[in-house]
Amino acid sequence: MKESNETVSGRLTELVRRLSPIGPDLYYPDGNGAAFWRGMRDNAAYALDIEEMRSEGERLLNAPSPDLPYSLFSLFAGQGSRLEYERAYFEKRRRLNTFVLLSLLEPESQDYESAMLDAVWSICSELTWCLPAHVRAERPLSATIDLFAAETGFALAEIRLLLGERLPGLLRTRIAELVEERLLRPFLEKGPHDWEEAEHNWSAVCAGSIGSAALLLLGEEQDCGRLARILEKTERSMGFYLQGFGEDGACLEGLGYWNYGFGYLVYYADLLLRRSRGKLNWFRLDKVRRIAAFQQKCFLGGSAVVNFSDALPYSSVQLGLSRYLAGRFENVQSPPLALRADFRDDHCSRWAPALRNLLWRDRAEPAADWGTGDAVLQDAGWLISRIASEGGTFGFVAKGGHNDEPHNHNDLGHFIVAGDGAFFLCDLGCGEYTKDYFGIGRYAYDCNGSQGHSVPIVNGCLQSAGRDRAAIVLEQSTDSGGVCRFAVELSGAYDCADLQSLTRTWIWDKTGLPCLSLQDDFRFRAAPDRLTERFVALIKPDYAGPGRLLLRRGGLMLELHYDDRQLRSEVSARTYRDHFGQEQVWYTLDFHVLRSELQFGIRFLFKFVQL
To answer: pTM for the whole thing?
Structure first.
C-alpha cells in the first residue's frame, strides 16, 4: 500500500529537521576547501585540467563578455534558429565556470577574482535563465523553469557555498533571492510543470537541480517545511525519470543524455545522501546500479560510441561522475584516462560536472581500457559487441526498439560497425537543433528519418513514427564460441500494405578479424515495384569489381560483398547540418533489387581486412 502524501510529507519534514548542516564538508572530506585546492596545484594527476583551465582563462580575460540582447533572443521565434543565442549564453557560463574554478585554485590572483565577480554579476543580471526554445508566450517567465534555468540556479547556489565570504554580501543575497524567485517558488507554487512527470532527462536535470539548490540554501529551522515539500516533489520527479528506463538500464536518449540526466540524478543523490546522513539513498536501488553501468557498454573502441537517437558519434567521459560510480558500484568499470573530457569539451559549459571532475577524481583508479564485452539489452532491443584483439578494437551494435523513443529516430533494424576507433557504417547522430527539428518536420531531417539510417526502403516507403511501429526481437544472443546473433521482424515499421514480413538477421563473427553477415528476408502479398537496401557511411566507398565495395580508413578496410546479379549498387554523396550547425558530407550505399518476387532474401557480407 502506497503512503499518503501527508505521510510522506510528514516523514520528510521530520527527517529534514535532522539534516546535517550546510557546509564545506559536503564537498571536501575534511571540510578544508583551501587545502584541497592547494593540494590540487601540486598534484600531477590534475596537470592537464589546470593547464586547460588556465588556457581558457587567458582566452577569456582577453575577450569581452557576450551580451544577450532581444535581437538574439527573438531569433528562435522568428526563424526557428537556436545557435546564435545559445552560443552567447553558453559562453557566459564558460566564463563563470572558468573564473570561479581558477579563483578557487589561485585565490591570490586579482585578475581571476575580478573576472569571477563580473561573471557572477552578469549571470545574476540576465532577464531570464531560460533558453528561447523553452519559453512559451502563454506562460509568464516568472513561472517558467527549463533545463538551463535549473542548472544555473544550482550552479550559483553551489558557487555561493564554495566561495563563502569571498563572495560579497550583495551577491550572496542576490543569488539566494534569484534562486528563490526563479526556481524554488515557481516549483512549489506555479506548477505543475510539464517535466515533473517526464520519463527522460528533463525530470532529472530540472528536479535534481532544484532539489540540490534547496539542499544548499535552506538550512534554517523555519525552512524545514518548505525544504520537505521541495524534496517531496523532487523525489517524485526522480521516480518518473527512472520509469523511463527498462530493467536493462539502457538510456534510449543516447550516451550524451545519460551523462546529462543520470549525472544530475547522481549530483542530487550525493548531496541528499550527505545531508540526510545516509537516510535518503537513491544508490540503494538496483535499477540505479544497472543504469550506472550503461556507459561502459557504449564504447566501440577509442572514443567511438553507440550513438542512436540524438547522440554524438564520438564521446569523452566525465571523469568525476564515472569514477564516483565506479567507486560506488562493483558492476561499474572505471574509465580509461585517455577518454577524460577536456575542460573545454562541453559546449554547454555545465558547472556541475566540471566541478566534480575535480572533486571526485580519486573515487576510483583508472583502467587501461574497457576491454572486450558483449551486452544484450533486452528492454531496449539492442545488441552491442566490443572486441579487443591483436588486430585492434572492433565494435558492432544493432537495434530493435520502437519509433517513439525519447529523441526518437525512425531507425528500427539500424546498425553500426566500427574498427580501430572509427566508423565504417555509421549513425549520423544528432543534427542541428531548430524549432522544426522538434516539430512536425522532424523526420524530413536525414539524421532523424529512416532515409538516413542503414535500413531498407520498401516500395518507396520509409519507416513511420509511433509507439506501435515496433520491432519484434526473434533472437538476441552471445556465446563463448565467438559469434553473436540478432534477428528482428521489422514489417510493423512500414506503411506498406503488401509487406507481410521483413526479417533482418545479423551474425557477428568475432574470430580473427571480425566479419558481419546480414540477411534480409522479405515476404509480400504482391511483388513490390522497387526495393532498396540502404547503408550509411561517412567514408566514400571504392568500387572493386562486380559485387564488391571497399571502405578504407587508416590501416583497415571493410569489404562489402553482395550479389550483383540480384542488386545494382549506387553511391551518393549527401550533406546534413550537424549538432553544431556545420555542413557534413555522408554517403548512401544503395542496393536496388533488380527483380522482385513475392518472397526472397538478400544477403550481404562485411569483412574487415588489414592494409
So the answer is: 0.95
